[in-house]
Amino acid sequence: MKMIGRWNNTNRNEAIATGTTLSTKYEHLMREKMKESQGMMVVPSMEYLYTVYDGGKRHIVNMRDRICTCRQFQMDVMPCKHALAIVRKYYMSEYEYCSVYYKKDNLLNTYEVPVYPIPDESIWEIPPDVAADIVLPPKEKIKPGRPQKIRYKNGGESRPKKSRITCGVCGQQDHNRQTCINIPQAT
């Protein structure tokens, strides 16, 4: 319990010291998405409806309803990189489209509730019927199949970039030795 009180106090002090609109974690995430939104082409359709071209893909973003075809805007209740491309182009406030749960004020409300310390065990008054109960840990049910080695990544987490395959015969990319059309002819 001592650790929980210390953790609550540390987190509350960090939240007070935060000089940003969002909590530190989500402010950093917003900056990362803002960097990813650079170079995207934005085409307005209506006052609140936009088409965003991200490389070879096209995404439709509804800023009024906070909807994007990548679905990250709806799931995270925070602007996705496509919505941030619109925000950047039209000089809107990105914080206007964030959920209140990510904002500093809400974070401070989380740590407003005090964590009361527990007195020493020697002072506790335990009824005899409760003291006589023996509580065993629950039996662990072993699931069938091979255990999972790594955790599943969230949609917002970055995945490692896939390397392009290279042919061992001609050295070109996007095909391998078996599908190579540049096989040298035997004389």
From TrEMBL:
Residues 50-91 form the SWIM-type domain. GO terms for molecular function: zinc ion binding. It comes from the Eukaryota. The keyword Zinc-finger applies. Signal peptide: none annotated. InterPro entries: Znf_PMZ, Znf_SWIM. The keyword Zinc-finger applies. Keywords: Metal-binding, Zinc, Zinc-finger. This is SWIM-type domain-containing protein. It comes from Solanum commersonii. The lineage of its organism: Eukaryota, Viridiplantae, Streptophyta, Embryophyta, Tracheophyta.
